[in-house]
Structures are given as structure tokens and as C-alpha cells.
Amino acid sequence: MSDVTPTPGIHHVTCIAGDPQRNIDFWVETLGLRLVKRSINQDDPGTYHFFFADAEGTPGTSMTFFPWEDLPQGKVGTGQVSTTAFRVPEGSLDYWESRFDDYGVDYDDRVERFGETVLPFRDPDGLPVELVETEIPEDDPVVPWTEFVPSEYAIRGFHSVTLWIADPDPTEGLLETMGFERVGTEQAQSDTPGDRRTRFAASGPVGKYVDVLPTIEGGRQGHGTVHHVAFQTPTDDDQEAMRSAVRGQGLSPTNQIDRHWFRSVYFREHGGVLFELATSGPGYTSDEPLDELGGRLVLPGRFESQREQIEAQLPDVTIPHADPIEADD
């Protein structure tokens, strides 16, 4: 492992949604994330791919969605990312509960986990999400987007993902190979399959935790489930070293695939969860100025010649914007 750079943590999480307008409205207006990229699924160009992140699309902040309207409702089960958690500043959960009441968001009572307070909720497609109160350091790399939610409450990138795994041991060994450190185990909450939750921590400040829960509960992919989780391998060399280490675990990673804003390698880990390794660059500002991110449909190079046909297949969507505050005379 000495030649493998430990992953700093999560790069992005990609999920399956239903109605694209409802998806945008919730993640931009209700949760206050910035739509930093409006594009297409590069493997299914008749479908949108939305990227919601902090103000600058910092690695470790982007929740992305394929709104496949024709898919059925999914069910979280073994071999999936069961829950995605975001960091919020300490003392902000009262604000979020009030906001969820105002917007009709389905949420549960707070729970304590590894010494942190967690607010579980679901997006309009039933996707399980959590807000976790954490101390945000002065030098935190996340730049909060504040059009809808004030900075003192705004989401600050990923906290963690939880994996539901039938046989956790091989997956836990893989996480250690990727540079995660086992930092604790505690009793799982009563409403969660499995009797213990084991936490692993990466080396970076954002999206650093992966929790593993043993369960054999069956699931199916569809609306309200996670498609894959991507981990940061900042450079091509980092990625290739990690790819070799993954192969050494008996897994079958793909060759590198150019995803336009990052370069990716994919594989299913031992428990069946689809993992991605993603480089830091070239990033979301490689094809749009920072102040214009998400403002138009961006098509990766090889699709630009098909723009007319692609746009004709996609439903119209509107990006929410906060009403400007009128200055007093």
C-alpha cells in the first residue's frame, strides 16, 4: 500500500430521480445547493445529468442525479449506498427542521451517532439523506452557496455515505486498501438493519467518512436510490495506483473513462456497491465561467454535434432563483 495515495474521501454521489423539475426545485431551492452543471447522462444522452454542489463545485460537495422518469420506485437494500449525509454547521438543525416544516419535507427525529447529531430526511423521490452537525474549520475548502440558505446554516459538502453490505469483511478490507482508517463501531439504531455500524475515515476534510452496516435486506434500483459513489483520486497517477490496488483485491475496475469534468474508473466492490474513482480535474469550470455554472445545457465534446436531437428529447426545466431584495429609496 505504500505506493497508493490514500483517498481524501468522497468526490460525488450519483442518484436516480424521477421528475427532473421536482428534483431541481428541491435540491436548489429547498436544500440551497447550487446547480453547477446541467448536462446529460453520457451513457444515455436522452436523460439529464444534474450536478448540485457548493458555490464552486469543490470536490466532495456534488450530489448528482439521473432523472429517469420511466423507472419504478426503488428500494434501499444490501449492495447499495443506503444513505448520503451532508455536513452543516453546529447549531443549525433547528433552522433546518423549521425549513423542512415550511417546505413539507419528510424528516425524522434527530439521532446521536459517533458523538454527532444527525437529522434524517428524504427527498421527493424518497432518497434517504441526512444532515450532520459538525464543527466547520476556518480553512474548510467548501464555499457555501447562499442564494436560498444563509451561510451560517448552509450545507458544507458531504459528511459520509452508509453502505448496506451482506458480508462486511471484504468491503471493510477494501476501504482500508483505499486509505480509509477504521475509527469506531457502535450499536446501530433500532430502525436500521444490522446490529452494528462501523465507521471508516479518509484523510481529507470533506466527505471523509464511510459507514458500513451488515444487512441482507433485499433492494432494487430505481427512484430514490443511489446509483454509485465516487471517491477522490486527485491525479491520474493516484487513480492508476488505486486501480492497481483494487485489482489486487480481486476486483475488476474499468479502464479510465473521460467524463469531461473528471476522469473515472468504475468497479463493483465485494458487496455489490458500484464505486467510482474520480480525478479532481479538469473540474466544472473547465467549460463554463464560475459565475455562469449550470446556466445552460453543457454537452461534452462528442455530443455537441447532436445538440439539436438531444435537446428535442429533454423536457424543459427552470432553475429556481431567489427574488432579488429591492433596495429602499
TrEMBL record:
Lineage top rank: taxon: Archaea
Gene3D superfamilies found in the cross-reference section: 2,3-Dihydroxybiphenyl 1,2-Dioxygenase, domain 1
Residue span(s) of domain VOC: 9-134, 157-280
PROSITE patterns listed in its UniProt record: VOC
GO MF: dioxygenase activity
Family matches, as InterPro entries: Extradiol_RC_dioxygenase, Glyas_Bleomycin-R_OHBP_Dase, Glyas_Fos-R_dOase_dom, VOC_core
Alphabetical list of Pfam families matching this protein: Glyoxalase
The entry's keywords: Dioxygenase, Oxidoreductase
CDD domains: PcpA_C_like
Name of the protein in its database record: Ring-cleaving dioxygenase
